[in-house]
Design brief:
The protein is 52% helix and 0% strand. The chain has 106 residues and is mainly α.
């Protein structure tokens, strides 16, 4: 049986597809590329609260999408951008009056 090969054209990453078509939120374009963590958090909150497609509460949907993006970017995410996105999590918690994340102990 002959081995099948993928086409030579680079397929879209599945994580990009999820981010663009997720039932969770309709995101502002390039929201995760914003420099200000507060702006990222405000945008995610706005998207979550206006979404008619999300399946859970706005805070949970916004935090899930942010965490998903961070996890899927993995090692390709520059340290400075990862730091901004982690700070955006803290800002999102503050916007929803949620307790701060526990600090990891090693």
């Amino acid at each position: 049986m002959a081995a099948t090969h993928r086409s030579t054209a680079a397929p879209k990453q599945w994580s990009q597809h999820v981010t663009e078509t997720s039932d969770a939120l309709d995101l502002q374009p390039d929201v995760f590329k914003l420099v200000d963590p507060k702006a990222i958090a405000r945008s995610l909150k706005r998207s979550a609260e206006h979404s008619e497609r999300r399946k859970s509460d706005p805070y949970r949907s916004a935090m899930s999408m942010l965490t998903f993006y961070i996890n899927r970017a993995g090692h390709n995410l520059k340290a400075a951008q990862r730091k901004r996105l982690e700070a955006a999590k803290d800002e999102l918690r503050a916007l929803y009056d949620k307790p701060a994340a526990r600090k990891k102990t090693h």
